[in-house]
Amino acid sequence: MFDKVAISVKAGDGGNGAVSFRREKFVPYGGPDGGNGGSGGNVVIRADGSVDNLFKYRRKRVFKAVNGRNGAGRKKHGRNGENLVLMVPPGTVVKYVSESEETVIDLVNAGDEVIAAHGGKGGWGNIHYATSTNQAPYIAQKGEAGEENTVSLEMRLIADVGIIGYPNVGKSTLLSSASAAKPKIADYPFTTVEPVLGIVEVGYDRFTMAEVPGLVEGAHLGKGLGHTFLQHILRTKILVHLISGTSESPVDDLIHVNQELALYDPMLEKKVQIVALNKIDLPGVQDRLSLVKQEFKEAGIKAHFISAATGEGVPDLMAETLKTLKQVAAKEHDREITKKVFRPGPRDTGITVEKKGDMYIIHASELERIIVGAGASEDELRWQIRNQLTRRGVGKILEKAGAKPGSKVRCGELEWEW
Questions:
Q1: Alpha-carbon distance 36 to 335, whole Å?
Q2: What is the band of 101 on the pLDDT scale with cuts at 50, 70, 90?
Q3: Do the bridges between strand 238-244 and strand 272-278 make them parallel or antiparallel, or are there none, so unpaired?
Q4: What angle do CA 264, 267, 268 make, to 5 degrees?
Q5: Is the four-CA dihedral 389, 391, 396, 399 of positive or negative sign?
Q6: Cα(261)–Cα(231) distance, rounded to whole angstroms?
Q7: In this predicted structure, what is the pLDDT of residue 62?
Q8: 359-363 and 352-356: which strand pairing?
Q9: What's the mean pLDDT in 332-338?
């Protein structure tokens, strides 16, 4: 199963604003009419019920949304770029790939979505810079660059009940016995290399049960099929902990598996478990069954004793599983459940000045994107740009940084004397 992949997403860039003036017969003083640029498209990741794997992201790993169009004269605004929607299976966890690998959002249900990269804003046309004292602005704004991120998509199985245990304890046989699922069954380790789902019917009720790959000691470190095993049981409401009756110490097996769960994620250790000892139909297990029952009793562990191969004890185990499942579901319904959602902070709108040599560099996200049109004198452009800086209080910031009349100043691609 291809259930984890990292992809690169690039949102669309915003379109540039236009520098334009009305040119009509008998209108000698036509004003500015440059339109705004369109916003770039977002990259959206959405859970869709018709998708059941991440295989489409195996070969193509880079996805880009559409850029916004540039503005034009006659107050024509550029078209917004279309959003790029990436479909993933319900149950996919989206993470930003970083050292902490912080979860963005858990797309549990069909229709859940998250914006993985925000499109850049379109630049203002020169009509936005027109004032009573600057009636012919020759400046506009360049479109903002779209966000670019690397995200990890991790599909986690959604099932009510998960069957856990060491390899070869009979998980596949139990699932086959309790449901109509037909998992691969063999007598060698790791028969199951990907999760298998089955529907279990108990009377008029039903629930989904998943058999996931077995684990070995050190599974939380990725040994064996550890991570594959553990990530898929995070969503299950309860666990059926299956132990082989042929084990030298079934109680020790139970303890070791639970230790692996706790080391991977402490929340797994807290999940409700129903313990079942399998393979009681084998002669060797029958001979020591009374001793095993006494061992469980002394450890204070309630256990079911079953044979998944013959079906003995399986109906009672499934009835107990359904009962426990309903109790857990009722408690979860009463408890407020919140999703962990990545909420980006507000974009930096602060203005700072940095001195490099004899140059004063202004860092201002809005002002750095100013572009100039043709047709104006150098003095006129300098005045218009300085006017924009003064309106935003940049003059005082420059003075505090030590700038004096005649000092070289740069903002974005523009450079002039203050």
A1: 48
A2: low
A3: parallel
A4: 65
A5: positive
A6: 10
A7: 95
A8: antiparallel
A9: 52
Q: Measured between alpha carbons, how far is 78 from 144 in angstroms, rounded to an integer?
A: 14
Count Cβ atoms below 10 Å from residue 215 Cβ, excluding itself.
Answer: 27
Concatenated DSSP letters of 302-341: -EEE-BTTTTBTHHHHHHHHHHHHHHHHHHHHHS------
Q: How many CA atoms lie within 13 A of 130 on its CB side?
A: 15
What residues have CB less than 8 Å from 137, skipping those under 6 apart? 19, 32, 126, 129, 130, 384
The DSSP bridge pattern shows strands 139-141 and 370-372 to be: antiparallel
Q: Could you give all domains of the chain from N- to C-terminal order, each with its CATH number?
A: 1-155 (2.70.210.12), 161-334 (3.40.50.300), 352-417 (3.30.300.350)
The Cα 33–Cα 20 span in angstroms is 5
Could you say which DSSP state residue 386 is in? H
From the list 399, 402, 366, 357, the residue with the least C-alpha distance to 385 is: 366
Long-range contacts of 373-382 (CB under 8 A, 24+ apart): 373/19, 373/20, 373/34, 373/126, 373/138, 373/139, 373/140, 374/19, 374/138, 375/138, 376/136, 376/138, 380/138, 381/138, 381/139, 382/416, 382/417
pTM of the complete model: 0.67
Position 232 scores a pLDDT of 67
Identify the pLDDT of residue 54.
86
Write down the number of H helices and E strands in the chain: 9, 20
